[in-house]
Amino acid sequence: MRIDFISAVPELLESPLNFSIVKRAKDKGLVEMYVHNLRDYSTDKHRHIDDYAFGFGAGMVLQIEPVDRVISQLKSEREYDEVIYTSPDGETFNQKIANRFSLYRNIIILCGHYKGVDHRIREHLITKEISIGDFVLTGGELPAAMMADAIVRLIPGAIGDETSALSDSFQDNLLAPPVYTRPADYKGWKVPEILLSGHQAKIDEWLHQQSLERTRLLRPDLLEE
Question: Does 104 have pLDDT greater than 80?
């Protein structure tokens, strides 16, 4: 899998893309990640990539030309399954989308910035708009890194035990059950006896019931889906 990030502030992606599971997947050759500095595609001698909005108030807008130049160059080299734009008004990112994206071969993520991008970019160059929630950030780099983490960990071999991802919250529209580890008794706070019984069928049943109960209590909307 290959992920190309287009960013006005590429430094914001350096840390999240070079640690933990994402770095391990890169080191194993399971995923390639490239961060493209949008300023490298500016035709302005000062490397400007933004300008004032026509007929609007305060706030700068990413220009269409540098974005078109970098996307056109990337698409001339390979085919992409999606060209994603991180936007507050996009489709809300969730586990189902992460599962689908993890099956793709190549994706581009354009990180929004400033007041947004020239709308013609969204009309002609973007195939999918994604939001991580109903709030606004300074830029789309952090949402892009979050999406990449959620996607990459689903690639076979990225995590030590591949079955671990199957029991994550949201995989089956349920929240994960509570988890415990040693010691079994700490300050009188005890691990549920069923988990120490060694009877795996009963343990699995208990875990499933716990998932259902937690979902009903905390996220009943998931059960409605």
Answer: yes
